Amino acid sequence: MTTHAADAGRPADGAASARTAAPVATPPAGAVPPRAANDARAALARTRVWDLPLRLFHWSLVAAVGTALVTGELGGSLMEVHAAAGITVVGLVAFRLVWGLVGSTHSRFLSFAPTPARLAAYLKGRWQGVGHNPLGALSVFALLGFLAAQAVSGLFGNDDITFTGPLFELVDEEVAARITTLHKQFANLLIGLVALHLAAIVFHRVVKRHDLVKPMVTGWAEVPVAELPPAPKGGGVIAFVVAVAVALGAVWVANGGPWKAAPVAASAPPAAASGWGGASTATEAERPAAATADAPGTPATGTTPGATGKPASPAW
C-alpha cells in the first residue's frame, strides 16, 4: 500500500477519533471559576466599621492628649489647663473601657483581641478581618493602659510651685513626690508611643495603600467583597448612656470626688447676748437711760424732745 505525501503528516483515523473523543474536565458543581474568584477579590464594597461614639472618643482623646503634652511642656499658668486635660483623659479612657464591652461589634475588645492564633496568622499573611489588625490591637491596648496610668498619676502630683493634683492630699508627701517624678519621666514614653502610632498610620497609607484615617472620620471602610463581614450589632442608646455615666463618675472621682474638702463658710459676727425670752440685754451704758425713761414723771421712751425738738430714737 502506497502512502501519499499529503497523508504523511496526518494521524491515522483511529488516533484522530481518540483525540477528538477525549473527555473535557468540568469544574464540580458550586465551584467558582478562577477568573470569577479573582474578580470577587478585586471588587470592593463599603462596610460600617467604627460607630459614632467610638469616633468621638478617638478624636476627643487626640485633642486631650495633645493639649496635655503641650501644656505640660510649657508649664506655668497653663498647668491648670494641663490638669483639666488629664482629668478629661481619665473620663475618656473610662468611656472606652465600657464601650469595649457594650459597644458595636468592631468596637468590642473581644472582636480584635490579639490572641496568639491571630498574631500568627497576621505575621504569615493569612489574617483577614475588619477593624484593628492584631498588631494594631496591641498598640490600642498599650496606649489605653499607659494613658490611664499617666493620667491617674497626675492626680496625685505636686510641683511645689503652681500645681497640686486633686488627690494630692490622699497620699504622703514623699509618695506624691515619687509619683510626680514618674509622671514627668513617663511623659517621654508617651510621646514615643504616640510617634510610633503615627508612624504605623503612615506606613499603612504609603506602603500598603490602606487608609486608616478616613474610616475613623466617616465610619466606613472598603473591603473586598469576598471578605465582607456581617453588619455590626450592639452599641445602642442604652449602652451609650451607661458608658457616659461611668465616664462622668470617673471624672468626678478624679476631680476630688468624696474627698474634696467643702469650702469653709465665712464666719458671721457674734450675735448680741440674749436675755430671757430672746430679748437683747441692755449694756451698762444703756441701763441708766432706760431706768430714767421708765421713772415716774418722765415722758415715755421715744417721745422725749431733743435739742432740735425731734423725737429721740428708740433705745433698742
Automatic annotation (TrEMBL):
InterPro entries: Cyt_b561_bac/Ni-Hgenase, Di-haem_cyt_TM, Hydrogenase_cytochrome. One of its GO terms (cellular component) is plasma membrane. Residues 49-219 form the Cytochrome b561 bacterial/Ni-hydrogenase domain. Residues 1-35, 273-316 are annotated as: Disordered. It is a multi-pass membrane protein. Its main location: membrane. The keyword Ribonucleoprotein does not apply. This is Cytochrome b/b6 domain-containing protein. Keywords: Cell membrane, Membrane, Transmembrane, Transmembrane helix. GO terms for biological process: respiratory electron transport chain.
